[in-house]
Amino acid sequence: MNIGLIGSGGREHALCKKIHESKLVKKIFCLPGNAGTSQLATNIEVDILNFKKVLKIIKQYKINLVVVGPEEPLVKGIVDFLRKNKIAVFGPNKYASKLEGSKAFMKMICAQNQIPTAKFKICYKNTQVINFLKRSELPLVVKADGLAAGKGVTICKTKKQVIKTSSEIFKGKFKSSRTVVLEEFLKGEEASYFIIVDNNNFKFFGTAQDHKRVYENDKGPNTGGMGAYSPAPIVTKTLEKKIISKIIKPTLKALKTKKKSYNGFLYVGLMIKNDEPFLIEYNIRMGDPECQVILPRLKTDIVKVFKKATLNKLKSIKIKWKKQKCMTIVLCAKGYPGSYKKNLLINNIKKIKLSKSDFIYHAGTKIRKGVLRSNGGRVLNISSLGDSFFKIRKKIILNIKKLSLKNFFYRKDIGWKVIKNNANY
Ligand code: AMP
Ligand code: GLY
Description:
Helix 7 packs antiparallel against helix 8. This protein folds into 4 domains: about 1-90, Rossmann fold (3-Layer(aba) Sandwich), CATH 3.40.50; about 100-110 and about 120-185, Dna Ligase, domain 1 (2-Layer Sandwich), CATH 3.30.1490; about 190-315, D-amino Acid Aminotransferase, Chain A, domain 1, CATH 3.30.470; about 325-420, Glycinamide Ribonucleotide Synthetase, Chain A, domain 4. With about 425 residues, it is an alpha+beta fold. The chain has helices at about 10-20, 50-60, 70-75, 80-85, 100, 105-110, 125-135, 160-170, 235-255, 290-295, 300-310, 390-405, 415-420; strands at about 1-5, 25-30, 40-45, 65-70, 90, 120-125, 140-145, 155, 180-185, 190-195, 200-210, 215, 220, 225-230, 265-275, 275-285, 325-335, 360, 365-370, 370-375, 380-385, 410. The longest helix is centred in the middle third of the chain and has 21 residues, at about 235-255. The site of glycine has 7 residues, from loops.
């Protein structure tokens, strides 16, 4: 069968590689893809928010199944549009995508179903913010309701900052919404739990921990993610049971009750406090770079899994995982997440000999006049599988050094929490 993969980041290169390994696949078309996917698939340049053009390409290339990587087309309803046009597609519908597309929607689902999450207030004007401040403690988390490319969350230490940040959102700083969600600040350790869901069932799809801050020791502004590792040792069997019973099951049931069942990957972003899980966010897709550490650990044919999910037959497939651990370090253009240069030369990649357990996933890359160049802030994801995070990280850093790239930077401390706690990790 022919697969259409929508997106162009490191997550999509990792998905493309896994899809490429499947025996069921004839051709892969990436819309638009990156320099990495072009080695395995046919890249087709298109605006992925122009659904009519996407549909035309799907028909033209006789694509049998579409897999959607990023959130924006999902939140804007690409799945509903393609299904209406009789195209098989893996991903959640527009209504269910509000779990990520609207933080207020997600919080209301939590409130209506007793799902543990930070206390919150949805605000539409400054007076509501001021009133909430009177009965809350600092710090307070200010969130833009809609999608904000990872920039919509501010942890505010002063009342003044809360009011300023909220009023910027009310004035339209983020195009996606002028609604503010104020949240109690939760202290604990973050972890991400992934599932794959169809209308009847769901299956475990890995755990991971991301590093959102740009600099080592978790300093500096938030980014899309500077590195990740899987599995997340903090997610014990006991904790997993609580995540499923207190968070996942009530959420999926709530959507089903509204006749809007969830179908696709679901990323459950958690804060773990005294062995109790609190929902911080839902993402309606795989994480980036979490996908790049989860997929190398997957043993089962991913296309078989997608097929089962789209047919609502996930129950009948056993998804198998490798015991090995995986880590990725994100190589970024200097200046990211602020302003950075594009078009930086990446010249050594082919000269480096990678072992079977090493992977370089492309994120922001493009081939221009036959030469590989950067095309974004997060440029390459250097990943590796192994038995200890400590050794894996050493190997990754060695591979990064071999690339001897100028004008790039990366965090050398990915996995510090697990490596510090246990040298064998
Ligand atoms: P989000 O976009 O909701 O994932 O938030 C981005 C990051 O902000 C999260 O990964 C957390 O590190 C932090 N964060 C969000 N909400 C809270 C909260 N209620 N308490 C503490 N930290 C939070
Ligand atoms: N790495 C965080 C995310 O994909 O949302």
